[in-house]
Amino acid sequence: MSSLRSPPVSSPAAGFEYARAVADAILYEGYLLYPYRRSSPKNRVRWQFGVLAPREVVAAAGPADTSVAGSADAWHQQTECLLEAPDEAEVHVRLRFLQLQHRAVERRTAAGAFVGVDALDVDGQRHLTFDEALPREFDVHASVGELRGGARTTEVTAPGGEEVEQLRDGAGTDVGRIVRRSWPVSATLTLETAAAEAPYRLHRLRVVTANSVTTVAADVARPEALRHSLVAAHTLIGVRGGRFVSLLEPPIWASRAAEGCRNVHTFPVLAGESGGRDVVLSSPIILYDHPQIAPESPGPLFDSGEIDEILSLRTMTLTDEEKREVRATDPQAAAILDRVDHLPEEVLARLHGAVRSLRPIRHGENAGESAAADEESALPWWEPGADAHLSPDTDAVVVAGVAVTRGSRVELQPRTHGTDAHDVFLAGRTARVEGVFLDVDDERQVAVTLEDDPAAELHQWRRRYHYFLPDELRPLPEEGAVSG
Source organism's superkingdom (predicted)? Predict the structure, then answer.
């Protein structure tokens, strides 16, 4: 992860700039996926995160989803976070989203009229009809005292419009045009504070972003609804003269207040410089506190959850005809192609991997004996049975004074930091231990299957388990057993 330093001045603007790289990754996450061609099936269903559609359209689609995940279309987002600040402290909220823009290619006829076409070649350059997007930002400022006095609602509007780009051949003859059209998108941004349950002065800050478009019929198809939607919507929240409290790792005195925060279709984490508490990024994609872009990354690939090296190498393998389609699909896709095609060898080498920390590794109770056993074993080190000292089916690990082994029942209590973000959704679920493994870092990993998972037997057969560290588990008695 990056070790950039933000300016020493504690201001929301400075923190916003520090968090911009991550915020931009959220803004364009899934915008156009590899292989970056319009013909790719996965690019025919786009805009998957943070979509705020007109309320009537969402209501007509079925029961509302009120989870924290932003992968389902919704009509609003709600962020609640904790803030330590006096009344004179200033809150700065920046709403960011994409506004869909349709790019229509038209061919000029002999009679001088223009007709819509799917594609048009002009002097060897192809132009395709496709959807683009325009980045939008809106800022709202208010003092904590103002927000304590009542909710403040601001209407924001991204106007629609139309732009025409003429297409001429080498002789200067008009052969067609590109018409880019966008539709108005409006939303309300509501800010308010309330006293949080805590022994010290603490505010619960609520930010609600809601699509306010009312001119769209409830039964329109999703492509039409997207024209009037906020796409990849998220907020940056800064405070001058105060500080936020982490919801993932709150201090004990604020833990009850953190549990009371209700976040819908988005989740706030501390952002900006590591350790700083004056900026929050509320994202439809689940993140940790202080998320950062790896410094080795040469630029965005619209799929920040993937490995840059893999995507770059795959992009290099595209044929000339495929690259031609990429350039015709989207200007930003063309920029990715140009960057990858001219990637210096030393930059590509950095993408192969980076070690963030080093510590001694010992396998087994006696590292020397384990090494000797490895030399004698004919199996690769990663295969079961390669180390005679290890047996996942019979090994045990002690958790809260209880030996946990294959067949044990446990309750999952995933850590809120430093683990798979998706594991948070398994908190409180009960599971059955399938084995105790030793990973390459010499740490015990407990493999489990969920007790209420209807596919548990299939996962057991395929050996597809969830893995947790011992301190993320609570031993449970066997069903029917009476605890002493």
Answer: Bacteria
